[in-house]
Amino acid sequence: YFTGPTSNITMSYIFLIAAVHILHVVAGIISLLVVLYQQMKGKYHPDDMLGIDLGATFWHFLDLLWVYLVLFFYFF
Question: Which of the residues in the chain have pLDDT under 70?
Fold first, then answer.
């Protein structure tokens, strides 16, 4: 168990979900900072937007993942 010998599985699962959420937020912030840095360097132009597209895809994936998880926990 994640919360000690006197804990239960429910609290351990809540801590696991919170840790995964924090990991995703940190990864998302890093991706935003990389895109912002590259933009400030002038890397992106109308013919080469791959970094921005990848950052947007990452954030949309995370959005869908967390909406699914919230609905899953709400209904089950």
Answer: 1-3
Number of structural domains found in the chain: 1
Please report the DSSP string for 5-66 in residue order: TT--HHHHHHHHHHHHHHHHHHHHHHHHHHHHHHHHTT--BTTB-HHHHHHHHHHHHHHHHH
Domain coverage including residue 16: 9-75
And the tokens for 20?
């995964």
CA distance 59 to 35: 12
Count H helices and E strands in the chain, helices first. 2, 0
3-state secondary structure (DSSP) of residue 56: helix
Query: pTM, whole model, 2 decimals?
Result: 0.73
Q: In the numeric block, which tokens belong to residue 22?
A: 């924090």
Is the residue at 13 inside a domain?
Answer: yes
